[in-house]
Amino acid sequence: MRAFSTAHGRGRSRFARVAAPLTALPLAAALVLVGCSSDAGLQAQWEESGDKGYIAGDGATTSFAQSDRTDPVQFEGVTEHGGFFSSDDTIGHVTVVNFWYAGCAPCRAEAGDLVEVYEEFESEGVQFVGVNTRDQAAQAVQFAKQFGVAYPSILDSEGGRAAQQAFAGQVPLNAVPTTLVLDAEGRVAHRVVGQLAAASQLRTLVAETVAETQN
Fold first, then answer.
1. Cβ atoms 108, 195 nearer than 8 A
2. Which of 20, 112, 138, 193 is the most exposed place for a label (fewest CB within 10 A)?
């Protein structure tokens, strides 16, 4: 499988939404071919992370051409408010999946960026869902209140880590934080392992994936 990678800076400038055809998308012009060894490196980072329980990552984006994407990922689980969320609910919608837990410092640092992009794209039908890898409901609810997170999170530690395992072919197990952008078919289009560089990084990835559905 071919993968493309680009690293984003940590500037806070805002990007305008992208509605151009896929061939003219700004991120595509900056993509650089990388080998498949990157996942092995991410797994090594996790193994070396020790008790801190998260990997630093570098905020780099790995993007997959439409012809190179794997099958749609099927996942499900109970949310922090006792509801049920399934990948069936996301079909036809671009979806952002964020792996996190409350005690993860990079997860806390990027929470505002996720909320900002969620609020921008909610009206366009883009869905967001968290996958909480460690916490119980009370911790997840408190985190959502503190950071203004309005979208649900699956409590994966209570579900036997089924959601994490569903994405195991895309993300090293327990690679937290990780943010995925799924296309309207439920396939992974973009992956960011480690803390998001800025809201503008995620905004660009979501806008590009939305643009695919308009062509």
1. no
2. 138
CATH number at residue 85: 3.40.30.10
Decide if pLDDT at 8 tops 60: no
| 173 and 53 Cβ atoms separated by less than 8 Å | no
Q: What is the pLDDT of residues 120-153, one digit of tens each?
A: 999 999 999 999 999 999 999 999 999 999 999 9
**Within 10 A of 151 (CB to CB), how many other CB atoms are there?**
18
Radius of gyration, alpha carbons of the chain:
16
Cα distance between residue 204 and residue 27, in whole Å: 7
Q: What is the pTM of this model?
A: 0.77
Q: For the chain, what is the domain count?
A: 1
Q: Determine contact, residues 92/72, Cβ cutoff 8 Å.
A: no
Residues 130/153, Cβ–Cβ less than 8 Å: yes
Domain hosting residue 180, numbered range = 3-212
